[in-house]
Amino acid sequence: GVKLLLHGLCSNTTVKSLDLKGNNLRTVGAEALGKLLRQNKSIRSLILEWNNLGMWEEGFSFFCHGLGANNFLQRLDLRNNQINHQGAGELATALKQNASLQELDLRWNNIGLLGGRALLNCLHSNKTLKRLELAGNNVPSDILKAVEQAMDHNQDRQTILSETQNRAYILSKEVLSLKDEKTKQFLDLMDTIDKQREEIARSGKTSAARVSQLQEALDEQHSIMNSLKAKLQMTEAALALSEQKVHNLGELLNATKAEQTSMAERHFTELQQQKQEGADREGKLLRDLSAASEKNLLLRNQVDELEKKCKIQQDQLFQVKQDLTNTTAELKLRAVQAEERLEMEKRRFKQSLEDMESLRLKEVDHMTQHIEASERSMQDRIQRLEAIRIALEEELSQVKAAALTERGQAEEELIKVRNQARLEEQQRLEHLEEKLRLMTESRDEAQNCCLKQKQMVAEAQAKANQLSLHADGLRRRLEELQQDLNSKEEEKVTEVNKVKVELQEQIGHLQAERTAQEGLREKIAALERQLKALSSNHREALLDKEGEISMLLEKLRMKEADISRMREEEAQRASFLQNAIMAYVQGSPLGAHGSRK
């Protein structure tokens, strides 16, 4: 039934959300879902909670291939689907290809450590996922923290992209409004020019009628000719004045053109300088990043060397402990042998005493003869026993001295190793603090550069606004001059045509300047985009470096804790061994015998 339903939904274009919670979907359902995700382009939310999609790897891999080929799904719920670390790896490969999914819920599965690492590695290439839930999957806390940092980073990136899109949309709207205003102004100018032409044609007709009347009047009256000659002279003077005004206007237009060209050259040089500065800063930042990466490699190598040294010291300590145990065992064996010898000699002594008493009871008469021999034999035995005891005491003293010297050497070596570890840890901490300070200084410098570039862009925009205002003022002056000339154009048809041609050329130049200003605005917008991209890259690099620094600090703390534990254990073991040796020496029969004497 699920297969038929999903086959029908493959060609559907209206369903936006699909909920298949608790339907016991397995291999057939997973394959049908993969086919649906490849073909459907309308579903935005898919809920698959309480199913068994992760039990069979082939079906789940088919589902993951479909998810990687889909670019429309935004929310996916896979809670309680028995997904293991292999299924998590398939999901990670699918997320590397997917560019639309924003929310993914994987709670209460069996992802584990390997699956968590695979998902964390895929987040470096996926920039659209905003929410990833991994609770109840036996994933370590450090991986969960890294996943949360990656999600925060993606959210910040999405907000920045939305802001840039909104700004671009607003700028496009403003550009369109400016274009509409300019077209309206141009159409108004063309309408005024057409009206002026109509008025000129009317004035030409009226002037022709007047000329005919004047010609008829000339035949009749010569006196009127003289007055007309005077009027013609006046008109010539007015024409000369108008030519001077037109020449002055041409000079003003040339001056404005020269100013605009100089301003455009200045803007171009400033933009080139900004580009060069941005390239230099990019090179510096890349060098800093390479140096930081090299320093991180050196730190890692040093950490590995320290770990090797700690292992060597642990092996040495283990050998020392084995030597101590061997010496203690030998001492115990020697003590046991000495005790056995003493007991044997005591028994022999008791037997001899009993024999002597029996002989004394039986043969009282022969006591005097045998007393001297027995006393001699007893003295010899006592001397032998004393020599054996002295030799054993000397051996015990030598063993004790050797154990004390070895223990002192071990303690000195431990003290040296501790001092070296402390010095190396202090040097590493100072090195890391210097790196942090350098990174903060580079970040502050990058922020200051961004602020300076923003200020330069604002100044360029202000200059562009001033140029537009200046152009508007020039247009107003041209309109006023046109109004002044329109009052006299009834008598100067030919000159007005020349002026119209010049005005059209000036309008073309102004349009060309307008296009140049639009090109400058586009360049400014491209520079703003480049600045935003650079700032986002710097933020990403800083976030990555901060994450690496935090990981290194955690490793250092773990190493310090291990070293402190090892020190405590070694101290406890040394104290236990010392107490045991002292107790053994004090409780041994040799020690008791020596104390009695």
Write the layout of secondary structure elements.
Layout: H1 2-9, E1 17-19, H2 27-39, E2 45-47, H3 57-69, E3 75-77, H4 85-97, E4 103-105, H5 112-122, E5 131-133, H6 141-220, H7 223-362, H8 367-486, H9 493-587, H10 589-596
Parallel strand pairs: 1-2, 2-3, 3-4, 4-5
Give the overall shape: elongated
State the end-to-end distance.
101 Å
- Category from helices, strands and their pairing: mainly alpha
In DSSP terms, counting alpha (H) and pi (I) runs of 4 or more, how many helices? 10
Stretches where pLDDT is under 50 for at least 5 consecutive residues are: 590-597
Report the strand count. Answer: 5
* Overall average residue pLDDT: 80
Q: From the alpha-carbon coordinates, what is the Rg to the nearest angstrom?
A: 52 Å
Which sequence of SSEs, written as H and E, runs from N to C?
HEHEHEHEHEHHHHH
Strand content: under 5%
Sheet having the most strands: 5 strands, parallel
Helix content: over 70%
**How do the strands of the widest beta sheet line up side by side?**
1-2-3-4-5
Can you give a write-up of this model?
This protein has 597 residues and is mainly alpha-helical. Helices cover 84% and strands 3% of the residues. The chain is built from 10 helices and 5 strands. It has helices at residues 2-9, 27-39, 57-69, 85-97, 112-122, 141-220, 223-362, 367-486, 493-587, 589-596, and strands at residues 17-19, 45-47, 75-77, 103-105, 131-133. It comes from Eudyptes sclateri (Erect-crested penguin).
Structure, briefly:
The protein is mainly α and 597 residues long. The protein is built from 10 helices and 5 strands, in the order αβαβαβαβαβααααα.
